[in-house]
Amino acid sequence: MDHTESRDGTAGTDERTDEPQPTPEPEPTPEPGSDQKRPRPWVRRARRTALVLALLLIVPIAAIETALRVNYTGDPAEGTYTRDRDAMWLGHAWVDGRKKDADVTALAGRLKDTGVRDLYVHTGPLEHDGTLPRSVYPRARWFIDAVHRELPGVRVQAFLGDVLANGGPEGLELSDADTRAEVVRSAGQVLDTGYEGVHLDLEPLHSDDGNYLDLLDDLRTLTRKRDAQLSVAAHQIDPLPHLHSVAGFVADHPKWWSQKFFGQVARRVDQIAVMSYDTARLFESTYGGYVAQQTSLALEVTPPTTHLLMGLPFYYESNPGHWGHAETVAAAVRGARLGLSRTDPDRELFGLAPYIDFAATETNWKEFEEGWVR
């Protein structure tokens, strides 16, 4: 060491003061752009925060996916097949003049050996004020009569829907009492046409919407007087507690209902059909596990006097909300059977509901028949 410290704390030199000292070399000048300074404190904090947030997202998602895979394991109970109480959504072409007698005959041939006993035929959409022009379903009476002739015992219900105002700048406003009254009048209008029920599909419907419950109460009063069915298409149930609240905070279109709200809806209708598709699941196993979970959650709060149906994806799409390779009919059928087996295997008022006829493939039908109809 060249330098020492004197007793008084000042720096001194060693005894060889007469020897020449080496001249220090100058520090190299860094090249432009080669400065490797340490990140500033706020950058380091931002990186740590990003890492923590990523872990908070990735770990729960991985846990959920693992749980869904596990939920898809095991064997469904014996006897968890069709109860001959299934339903099917049909497109608008059946009532607007595009379909003919031969089409009804072909439909009857497809359905006669299945458990489908209710047809939800698209008869709307409703106007945003709740009214329904008769001009949009000119051939409804013909179709109802043709189904009764070709498929005795199968009910035809009017599938009425609209976009709600909470889903965008325009739509049907449930908070308006006059609009709700018009929806009820439209329901009476289709029952006058000969339909045996009203199937309501309003989206996106936020959980805990009291105006919707009021509308269902009014519709139920009407359908009971007319000895008709009241059925609804229902959103999925929170796969995690209060997830609908979190989704509502992040987006304007929360995907899920609380289990409590689902039960409130189920107690007001004759049939409730879960739209158990468009789940964004990436694998058949996790989609099937998700359907199993949804089936159990729905069974837990649906009274035995209400007919519960789980929707099947009779269509193929590939997008972030619906991966066709994952959301298969086979996985949905098996998932529904697993949920039924674990929760209420003897439930009589239970069925499956394919969506939708005009997009169905032969593979869809085969998986439905082999997995459920038997």
Describe what this molecule looks like in 3D.
This protein has 374 residues and is an alpha/beta fold. An 8-stranded parallel beta sheet has the order 3-4-5-6-7-10-11-14. Strands 1-2 form a two-stranded antiparallel ribbon. Strands 8-9 form a two-stranded parallel ribbon. Helix content is 39%, strand content 17%.
Summarize the structure.
It contains ten helices and 14 strands. It has helices at residues 41-71, 101-111, 140-150, 177-193, 210-225, 243-250, 259-266, 284-301, 329-343, 362-373; strands spanning 3-5, 11-13, 86-90, 116-122, 155-163, 197-203, 229-234, 236-237, 256-257, 271-274, 307-313, 318-319, 322-323, 350-355. Helix 6 links the parallel strand 8 (236-237) and strand 9 (256-257).
Low-pLDDT sequence parts: 1-19, 246-251
Helix content range: 25-40%
Radius of gyration, Cα only, in angstroms? Answer: 31 Å
Number of E-type strands: 14
How would a textbook summarize the main sheet?
Answer: 8 strands, parallel
What fraction of the residues are assigned to beta strands by DSSP?
Answer: 15-25%
Which descriptor suits the 3D outline?
Answer: globular
What sequence of helices (H) and strands (E) makes up the elements? EEHEHEHEHEHEEHEHEHEEEHEH
Major sheet strand order: 3-4-5-6-7-10-11-14
End-to-end distance: 92 Å
Summing up helix and strand content along with how strands pair, one would put the structural category as: alpha/beta
**Average of pLDDT:** 88
